[in-house]
Amino acid sequence: SYEESVLAVIRRAPLMEEACRKNPGTMAAVMGLEEEQIVDICKRASAKGVVVPANFNSSNQVVISGSLDGVEEAGRLCRETGAKRVIPLQVGGAFHSPLMESATAGMKEYLEALKFQEPQTGLVPNVTGTVERKPDRIKELLVAQLTAPVRWYQTMKYFRDNGIDTLIEIGPGKVLTGLAKRELDGAQMINLDTMQDIQNFVAAAAK
Length: 207
Hints:
Layout: H1 2-22, E1 26-31, H2 35-45, E2 51-58, E3 61-66, H3 68-81, E4 85-89, H4 104-112, H5 135-144, H6 152-161, E5 166-170, H7 175-183, E6 188-192, H8 195-206
């Protein structure tokens, strides 16, 4: 239910915060290298500390995540390899990386107590970037999402290949709308940034 979904998000937040305290880390955006190059660089830099690709945002932008030493070393190797930019991100921890592992047990326990229904429409989790409908599979992916990379670019490709031409971003800011525009040229983008935006949208949809 909607209420259970909100409570699950509330439960997720302190679990992730605690993981950040246990395993401090950071993230950085890398632009101008191929996905395969960044994957290889992260493997090499792991000798200095945990670092992995965390967000595949576009064909030429990947966010890396991990320990302070690991991300610093990977950033250095990315610059040496020819990255156009490596931008440290102001974040509270190493999200979507193995450093979030301690949050998974509590999230799994919480979700196991909830009854998941089959969605009324196809759901595309950013862990897989493809449509999922089985309740147990969706529950499993919600736990995996804590440590798995966000496959945004692959998700946008799935939308494009399957004729999705309208995207609605709900929540503060317009970051995802901006990322989507890069991959879905010509699609209609609707950004519901404030409660007033949501109320106006609901009223217009009801007409």
